[in-house]
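Lecture 7 notes: from sequence to structure.
We start with the chain below.
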Amino acid sequence: HLRGEKIDVAAIEARLGRVLANDQKAYSVESGGVALLEMRGVMAPRANLFMQISGGVSTSMLAKQVQAMRADPRVKSALIAADSPGGNVLAVPAAIDALRLLSAEKPTVVVGEGVVASAAYWFASAANALFIEGPTDQVGSLGVLMRLGWEPASNNAVQLVRGRYKTASVDGKQASPEALAQANAQLDYLYTLLVDDVAKHRGVSGDDVLSHMADGRVFIGQQAIDAGLVDGYSTVDAMLDRLAADPTEFAQRRKATFAKPST
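Predicted structure tokens for the same chain:
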């Protein structure tokens, strides 16, 4: 790509003999009025060529899909099948708001099919209940990461900057304490949004979230249940049947429970 060569998607498709159809799928309405939406891959604000080839979640599109399920008179309840490590925080709050509104009006459940982590869990926590398929599924990694770096000073260029915090490093110099403090303040703000939302969605205190859920750990299977991140085990097919039979079971938001320490 740096040499000027461009990806010829049509040629790749011709060579493979199939279309690179990894675009985000629309929800389907299953038996009993259960809307089924798949959420798979890394989250980014909008879809692009990378997503077309490798798959992923456009968070902006995700919010619109959830809004559509809420407005669809055919939909009596909703199930989101999730397998995502999270991604960019941009557009996540809007998707969370959409899921929170859907859950308040229609029984809504998320089932993890592999990984529900970071921003993906932040979003999924707004459902009325969360489940994972089995004992090897991974949940958590709740935290915020920012990476700062700087290049060595160039011999034939100089940076001219206006605005105290416009750039953390000027002409290859190490970031100033003020710039690092500003970056840390931004992380604190985003982390507070995450912790407060998870606490509100799971019916626990912020201190509970910090102590049990949001220290960056990844929890596997029963560990995620014990930490209050999810409510138990269920396959997607089994949850489709449960919602079709009695959606009122998930009409109210479930509160997280924590495993008692062994004595």
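Points to note: Strands lie at 28-30, 34-40, 43-44, 57-58, 77-84, 108-117, 129-132, 138-140, 218-220. Residues 177-202 form the longest helix (26 residues).
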